[in-house]
Amino acid sequence: MATQTExxxxxxxxxxxxxxxxxxxxxxxxxxxxxxxxxxxxxxxxLSSKDYFHYEKYKGVYLTSKGIKMATTLVxxxxxxxxxxxxxxxxxxxEVHDIAEQLEHINSDELITKLxxxxxxxxxxxxxxxxxxxxxKFTIRSQVSLFNMNANESGVIVGVREHDTSFLRYLNDLxxxxxxxxxxxxxxxxDHSKKVLINNTTEEVLSQKAAHNLFLKKNKDx
Amino acid sequence: MATQTExxxxxxxxxxxxxxxxxxxxxxxxxxxxxxxxxxxxxxxxLSSKDYFHYEKYKGVYLTSKGIKMATTLVxxxxxxxxxxxxxxxxxxxEVHDIAEQLEHINSDELITKLxxxxxxxxxxxxxxxxxxxxxKFTIRSQVSLFNMNANESGVIVGVREHDTSFLRYLNDLxxxxxxxxxxxxxxxxDHSKKVLINNTTEEVLSQKAAHNLFLKKNKDx
DNA sequence: ATATATATTTAAGCTAGCTTAAAAGTCTGT
DNA sequence: ACAGACTTTTAAGCTAGCTTAAATATATAT
Lengths: 222, 222
Known about the structure:
2 copies of one chain form a homodimer.
Chain A: H1 4-19, H2 26-33, H3 37-47, E1 53-56, E2 60-63, H4 65-88, H5 97-103, H6 109-118, E3 144-145, E4 154-160, H7 165-173, E5 181-188, E6 193-198, E7 202-206, H8 208-212, E8 214-218
Antiparallel strand pairs in A: 1-2, 3-8, 4-5, 4-8, 5-6, 6-7
The first copy, chain A, binds a DNA duplex through α3.
């Protein structure tokens, strides 16, 4: 059994390599775990005998299939617990991350199997992120960033790129949630913001940054 | 914030003093936590500055009100999670202890408040043990051990004294659960066992040990 | 190509929590 | 009241994971 800290390292490496194609640097891991680069080097050396990843001095680190399995299991547990917190306990989507971060370390395969069934085998978490199945496979969905949509196109919100609390609360204020319909009214060249129609009722302007963080399933052209 | 280990120590002291009126000995704590007496002394010394308990060399230890608060909160969390596991996830009452032992360390007041509401503010866990409220108060119930019931008396199972897996599985085999009706047919002097009628259908003999471990709410005499 | 900046590793040392072995205190029976 | 048994504490030392400071690699800009 891996310790909680070991799990945190593996998941951090997974999240970093997911973006940075390839390997995770000492500094990136340290930043993600709010610890020092020296601690990371120390840990990587101690852990490298456990076969979760390949480590070469000064070259960074990448996960083995064993490490990927552990990481996707953690992601699966995290996202299932988030569904539980939002769907059953009625937490808001901006409140669940830290609690799920703890719950993902609970160790019981039977628990996760039963929780999955109890929740109705969800494919996506409350932020629209896919929940890997037991084998670690994700359900892929065709989606596009609002930033890449043109005037007169519309779609339904299916996910958010980043889930920091301030962004999610901002969306709450705008009444934007998963399932919300968005229609692009116009693109503003000057600062790349977009004027949009939310749920066929309210007009708002979304900044480039906000638009970039929203994923939609595009409606077929009418 | 207390570490998980600190929480385990406080809960162990609480459980021991609950039975042994007064204080918990080093050996008793060590036995409960499967660690060495030397580790316990070490820990008690380091922790005694945190005001959870009074410690005097060679005299054992007893909780302060701060320590009792922590312990009852842990008991509350443990038992609420057990209700969740049995009522919602359909675990059997003999499978939930170890998982709840992990879940009780999850840190979020809001989570416990919402879980409590979601479960319908239960007063007892799946073994019939009372769930302390937020203030640490237990709901007391009038109950009697089956061992102390006489021939022709009957009642309904409301709790079990010990919850070790083998006992709970034995009860499963006998179709005895919370809510089961038991009528004492006769007391066998020789070995203090009891012949009983279960749910008005099956006759069984229960040993002194088994009878001692079962709590019933007695039916009024007819 | 070399100086400078940045990234990484090494070294030394800390705390929490554990262990075993030995020392010291407390209890019990005669 | 004291010998022997049991309990508790002390002492020394271990591992996991952390820190800071210094040393070493690597990358970059001229």
